[in-house]
Amino acid sequence: MKTDLEIAREVELEPIGEIAAKIGIKEDELIPWGRYKAKISLDIFKRINARKDGKLILVTTINPTSEGEGKTTVTVGLAQALAKLGKKVALAIREPSLGPTMGIKGGGTGGGYSQVLPMEDINLHFTGDMNAVTSAHNLLSALLDNHIYHGDKFHIDPRYIVWPRVMDMNDRNLRNIVVGLGGPVNGTPREDRFSITAASEVMAILCLSNDLNELKSRLSRIIAAYTYEEKPVTASDLNAVGAMALLLNDAIKPNLVQTVEHVPAFVHGGPFANIAHGTNSLIATKLGLKLADYFVTEAGFGSDLGAEKFFDIVCRQGIKPDVTVLVVSIRALKIHGGMGQKDAKAGKRGEGEIKKGLKNMEKHLENIALFGVPVVVAINRFPNDTEEEIKIIEKFCNEKGVAVAVSEVWSDGGEGGIELAGKVIDTIYNKKPSFKYLYSPEMGIKEKIETISKKIYGAGKIVYTVAAEDDIRIIKKLDMEDLLVCMAKTPYSLSDDPQLKGRPENFKITIKQIRISAGAGFIVPITGKITTMPGLPAHPAAEKMDIINGMAEGLF
């Protein structure tokens, strides 16, 4: 089998204007970024806003392995399959972060014959959105420290500066740092930290804003620090909002590209789902729903993270899914059933482990049902998977009354997703959603956290550290208890322990601290050993990358 990069290079891309025309984007609404990429002017909404929305298809997964289970590949392949059935379709995925691209997981453009292209551009610098978010975020950091240097009229407590710096790379050495060393002319010494750009509140704000005015409004509410009197110091207080918005002026416009089979694809925004809300921009989704009859998007990681946040955070902005596709891989089920990752990846037979691992899938099906959304299971087939193994999953789904289809979109493109597309369409028109949220914003902070932890994860007890309790005190003091909840948790387990596989029950969730993202409209409880600045593995993917004769090598 050819590599993803080899497949991508063999595709004769269509000019971006032709891709845009497929879903009715006019030439004067297109901002070309080369021949095969473009941004879309937000003025398009003046023309299409009164249109009826198409059908929204959300793709999620069970708890994945560290290499992922092909959720993006299924998202792309499903859209291509719908196009083969003659449907007017578009899709949206997040912009890849350089951290995972250079780390262990690789890029975020799908795989095989179900990719978005040009994959080299998208997986690297693309249209500069990541850089714009990084620059806007770090501008606020610079303005904050500059304010302190020039007299500090707000009387900021340096122990409670909560705005980190960011960069779009995994680098554990930057998790905790000291800045301002070298004497008075170089600033005021203090502790600081870095997060990865995908975890920035600016990224979340960009992806949850409907337009530039809302972007500015949300940016103005960012809390950067607290005074000695525990009063918040915001981006608005530091006069940062205008310049931050200026840096984000192009980034807020959705990016349009194409799949291997020339289906229109929006790639816009890149929040992680384990430490942020994990979905492409709201603007791209709303645009796609107005332009296409079927719009496919993904939520990061499993239903316990990306899907829950999509339902409870993103959907409150005026959208509702018609169906959810739950991606399942046999290798992940084997791992959740007790098999070692090396053996599972190698394709070792293990019907017993698969049956045990179905408990994990069962919990994710229950999670989706809590929101009243119909579901279709997609078995993402890998080369080592056998018919006997697949039949175990199909039998389980049939007994549960859940539609199931084998997806072979990695090897066969849209053709390999025809069965899945048919099941999705059938479910949309025969099982109407009765969508509901998991919790009300009016609930108390602990009540919301415990509702998610117990109902979605299956936890039996929630423990709060002294630091977390103090954070809750501050939230109450600031009258911000109505903020939504965006849990930061490992994606590899339903619990906060990545080693606890399957369907654990009555376990303990530890809330270490709670960060306020007032502009994004949520709080971020940090659980277990999660960090907002990941590290690189022992042998990063970057070690095998190069540029040879002007061509990228080693990307996947």
Features:
25 strands, 36% helix, Domain 2, N(10)-formyltetrahydrofolate synthetase, 20 helices, alpha/beta, twelve-stranded mixed β-sheet, 3 domains, Formyltetrahydrofolate synthetase, domain 3, Rossmann fold
Whole-number count of domains:
3
CATH superfamily of the largest domain: P-loop containing nucleotide triphosphate hydrolases
Residue-averaged pLDDT? 96
| Model regions low in confidence, pLDDT < 50 over at least 5 residues | none
Explain the layout of strands and helices.
Elements: H1 4-10, H2 16-22, E1 30-32, E2 38-40, H3 44-48, E3 55-61, H4 71-84, E4 89-93, H5 98-102, E5 110-111, E6 114-117, H6 119-123, H7 129-149, E7 156-161, E8 165-167, E9 177-179, E10 190-192, E11 194-196, H8 201-208, H9 212-220, E12 223-227, E13 232-234, H10 241-247, E14 255-259, E15 264-267, H11 282-291, E16 294-302, H12 303-314, E17 323-328, H13 330-336, H14 341-346, H15 351-370, E18 375-380, H16 387-400, E19 403-407, H17 409-412, H18 418-430, H19 445-457, E20 461-464, H20 466-477, E21 484-485, E22 508-517, E23 522-527, E24 546-548, E25 551-553
Parallel strand pairs: 3-16, 3-17, 4-15, 4-16, 8-11, 17-18, 18-19, 20-22, 21-23
Antiparallel strand pairs: 1-2, 2-14, 5-6, 6-14, 7-12, 9-10, 12-13, 14-15, 22-23, 24-25
